[in-house]
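Following up on my earlier thread - several people asked me to post the actual chain instead of describing it. Fair enough. Here it is, all 333 residues.
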Amino acid sequence: MSPFTVYIDQETEGMYLLRDDAEDTFKLSHFDFIAGDWLTTLPLAQKDSVELMIERAHAVSAVKSPAQRFTDEQWKKFYQKCATVGRSYGCEIRPMAWPERTTPNARRFTYGSSEKATKNSGTHDVKAMRVFHRARPHLRFMRLDAPRHRTHPAIREAAVKHREQMNFELLRLKNRKYPMDHPWMQQCSEAVEKLALLMTERQRAILGVEFSKRDPGKINKSWNKPKVATLWALTHNLDGTVRTDDRGRPVSHAYLRHVVDHSPYRPRHCGVHRANIMNDARASFIANRLGIKNPKLDQLVSPAMLDDFVDARNEFDREWLKLAKLFRDYGDV
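Reply from S.P.:
Thanks for posting it. Predicted structure:
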């Protein structure tokens, strides 16, 4: 049996909620919402489970983010209330984290524009969330009361430090237009020549790598410097040695996946590394895959094109990680 879902949005004037079985939203004050007594009005006795779909950003403590309304302690008590009420009815109540980056896509899908409504924005957003979720029922969400991380804490910590250093160097490269006198660019120039022979045609296209027609086996010098440098920085130190873990082994697939971080729950600001992937590599791949020149996101995230857009996006994500592993293993080539 599918869970009964309630879609929830926080606004300045209160909390807006939309039930699975209702056409209209209802509104609660912030105090009444977090107190949790309203949970007993849900059809708990008739359901095995209920999911409360709440934008993850709203579950951040008000101590850390003044834009939010509740503290960690208030959320903790709310989660306990969900568990207690659910048990009394023989129904599991699961507070779920709706990725805040998905809300603009939901608006695009439902209304044709990602812009937040100037009036009745709470109702506007929860209705968009429901329409989008119903169209894509396979989407998986993280629990707010018991978040799980697929990546080991030690890997996450190392990846965060690496991302900071990598973004610092990539920003210097970007500001200088990727000069060939930088150690990474010299290393890239040598590596891409050899790695091109191991890449698939699609992977070479992603990086702008082409073989010379006059000199077979050699590549043209027109390869995309930002994309190649981004992959090299992901897998190598400044001295050209491959990045290793605390046991001296080349960084793992889990490590690379966490640094690249395609998750909708990723940090909001990920620097030049992320921008090079999203705004250059991934965007151009999707446009070419769909045969659209300069596509607008509002056009792609529409009922007519969303499935093709998602397929192309996921295909790029897979190919980028394959390239990262290929660059990591360059020393063994």
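The longest strand covers residues 4-11. That should answer part of your original question.
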